[in-house]
Design goal:
With 223 residues, this protein is an alpha+beta fold. The chain has helices spanning 13-24, 67-77, 86-101, 104-109, 125-145, 159-173, 180-191, 193-204, 210-213, 215-218, and strands spanning 2-6, 30-33, 56-59, 62-65. The structure holds glutathione (GSH).
């Protein structure tokens, strides 16, 4: 039996990736929500995952942690989670790994807080570099690999889409303007029924994290 330990839906962008993957592919699992708001390095998390963080997947008690490792573990059971063409699959893995390892400036400057919608302001140069690289990745994948009607990076939904799902929220929350192809892809992610389900559950959460909630003021926006 698969059990997924996730953090607060309002804040936990890493949790969203693995949860969305399971939901998109309609894989049965039990969800356990663990509070991470305001509790960096919560020792209780050590019981759930070796790295003391969420998400963590338990398969009949066997623990898998780190979102990319969870995705790979699931993809061994459900190979349709990656594109079937070897070159498309390699590219999807490259860009998923780039997300897992990178974009720290953007993630720090624009944390996920689904209860915010900000007017936005010009991004700092290093944050804008992250945004430009993401736009480049999305645009190349859509033009080179997304044959057919599917709105996803490689046509059909894959691990790569799940990895970038929280970026769609960040670009939306912080009101970042995007070229047409990237904007259409962001909107496809935001309209995914499981993303809407996650968002609606996040709005019902009462726990607040001061560090993230003060950003409305910083960005001159309104909730
Ligand atoms: N690289 C990890 C990042 C996981 C992570 O940072 N999770 C945060 C929540 S989004 C967390 O568990 N924070 C609680 C803590 O550090 O105690 C992954 O891909 O799963």
């Amino acid at each position: 039996m698969l059990e997924l330990y996730i953090g607060n839906k309002n804040y936990s962008s890493w949790s969203l990736r693995t949860w969305l993957l399971l939901r998109h592919f309609d894989i049965p699992f039990t969800e356990h929500l663990v509070s991470v708001a305001g509790r960096d390095h919560n020792p209780a998390l050590k019981l759930i995952a070796g790295n003391g963080r969420v998400p963590s997947l338990h398969d009949d008690g066997f623990q898998v942690w780190e979102s990319i490792a969870i995705a790979e573990y699931l993809a061994e059971k459900y190979p349709q989670m990656w594109p079937s063409d070897p070159k498309a699959r390699a590219r999807a893995r490259s860009i998923a790994a780039e997300m897992h390892a990178g974009f720290a400036k953007l993630r720090t400057a624009m944390p996920m807080n689904l209860k915010l919608k900000l007017r936005g302001k010009p991004a700092e140069a290093d944050v804008q570099r992250d945004i430009d690289r993401i736009v480049e990745l999305w645009t190349e994948a859509r033009s080179q690999f997304a044959s057919g009607d599917g709105p996803w990076l490689f046509g059909d939904f894959s691990v790569a889409d799940a990895m970038y799902a929280p970026i769609a929220w960040r670009l939306h929350i912080y009101n970042v303007s995007l070229p047409a192809v990237a904007a259409a892809y962001r909107d496809a992610l935001l309209a995914h029924p499981a993303m809407v389900e996650w968002y609606e559950a996040a709005l019902l959460e009462s726990e607040a994290h001061e560090k993230y909630d003060c950003l409305a003021e910083v960005y001159g926006g309104a909730r």
